[in-house]
Amino acid sequence: MKKIIVIVLLALAVKGNAQSKGIFSKDPIINLENWQKKYVYFGFFLGVNSYDFKIDYKTVGPDIQVDKSVGFNVGLVTNVRLMEYLDLRFEPGLYYANRILHYPPNASFNSSSDAIREVNSTYINFPLLLKFSSLRTGNVRPYLLGGVSANLNLSSNAKSLDDNLEERFRVKTWTTNYELGFGIDIFSEYFIFSPSIRGSFGISDELIRDKDPNSPWTGNIESMKSRAVLINFTFH
Fold this sequence. Notes:
By secondary structure, this protein is mostly beta strands. It has a single domain, classed as Porin, CATH 2.40.160. Helix content is 6%, strand content 52%. It contains 1 helix and 10 strands; from the N terminus they run αββββββββββ. It has one helix at 2-14, and strands spanning 40-57, 65-68, 70-83, 86-90, 93-102, 116-133, 140-153, 174-187, 192-202, 221-235. Strands 1, 2, 3, 4, 5, 6, 7, 8, 9 and 10 form a 10-stranded antiparallel β-sheet that branches. The longest helix is centred in the first third of the chain and has 13 residues, at 2-14. The chain is elongated and about 70 Å long. It starts with a helix and ends with a strand.
């Protein structure tokens, strides 16, 4: 599915130029030649994600298994030119993700449902990134991205007084991450299409422990941090 999305959107972006003087031809017509000289420009992105948990334990034992699924992303882009090949980007967006935790068998579990916890997350992500661009070749310009972000989890259950005994899995409302990735700017006649992929790695522990310090759900967890693969298709 991801490959199909990439192929379809890439085809749409280059449709008008992929003829006799296409983007990838030997001597392409240079599109939007002065675009990169703009001090500020805006855009939007659509995309998909796959979120996981990195779990560290207090004592050695069977691991908690995490089932991942594909979520979606949507957001806005503000790009500020700092110098010729360096830009500052702010990309606030909405990220929806779903993970299912499968706990190893435990004598404290009264039923099979106790060993499963579904974690639905609706993040508002606030990333501040540096974009390092290479030299433009025709209508193509690769780049690297790196920076930090803060996530506001609207589905955290952080204020709930219930915990896993009442089947309520809780995580913190705010978390921080660092992000690294790469992409490519493709200059069409009227806009820039920029597919990119990056990893997001949690810095702070986001788990809220149960009231019982020996809880079979949270008692042996030293830290739980989100990590994700983010694929975005940006249009400027």
